[in-house]
Fold Monooxygenase.
Amino acid sequence: MSTATPADWQVRPAPRTAEEWIARAAAVAAVLATDAAARERAGAPPHEEVGLLKESGLVTLLGPAEHGGGGQDWTTAYRVIREIAKADGSLGQLLGYHYLWNWAARLVGTREQWEHVEAEAARNRWFFGGAVNPRDRDVVVTEDGDDLVFTGRKSFSTGSRVSDVTVLEGVLEGTDQHVFAIVPSNSAGLTFHDDWDNIGQRLTESGSVTIDGVRTPWSSAAGYVDKEFRPRVYNTLNVPTIQLVFVSFYLGIAAGALETAATYTRTRTRPWLHGGHDRAVDEPYVVDTYGDLTAKLWAVEALADAVAAEGQELHDDPDAVTEQARGDFEVRVAAVKARATDTALEIASRVFEVTGARSTTRAEGLDRFWRDIRTHTLHDPVAYKRREVGRWVLEGELPEPTWYS
């Protein structure tokens, strides 16, 4: 990380409003941006950068204020993710996944469980990772007295080596019951592998993990009472919530690409020698491209904010969430996910048209925005998001809650 470190966040007044938290995120992003391209090329685990997220208090954003958390809601969290992702897509993803896994206790657990987890997470500024990849073979969970024992392997575990705690998920042996539990990331039997080697989102620590007899008390099984799961429709909001997290860092990365490109165009891009202009910023095609891409980004950001507000109404009254309300919300999420995917990919690709050939040097790192977007937008096929919207429009069909819808 750059030697241009911030003043001690601990002595600064803690943000109290959504606007102050977003401003805090922008200040953190300014620090992350100073060496983002070089850091991405180096590919080292972002321990120091995650430390900055902790020191600045951003990791506690959704935590209860009475335990030192920010006391904010998801509409603010999505905006904070966007700000961080403008500077560093990997850190935006890490923070977004952290918020989801922190909130998972509330989504799935009993009140006693989630109040305990949220209090401890806020007090200790835990950073969350997760080993939950539904495309892999299920992790097997067995009983051993008052303990559960998780055994298996997952090919992706975002946050892994930079996390304090990890969310595990598996199927209770001999049943079809899924079990979520939070364990310390340094638990015996939990081994994170350094095998994440993708073209984008290179610092998300998303390598594979071996889960070899990791033990946790039955009492930590989220949502279980006397070894019986207590389901709620609210449990199924995990997917639309994480999909909005995806939207947030997609839009943040796209905004970062535009801002970085615009700075380059203003300061370094040369006008075309046959265009008749002295400055690149006066080239009609350059002005038009920036206007076009900015308008598209603003449109999707506005839709994302509207859908986030709709989702917050469900989070505010979880016991009143119905299948219809959940389904209608998932359709809206699918729509903004599709638009964000297409728009972010277009922006991250087309900025090269208005920066010029010299902007493609590795030192500039302008390609990292496209590589980050391209890598993560393959998480689940966007065609199926458009299908959800189309089926709802034509038949009133609600998406079936799955790991991806």
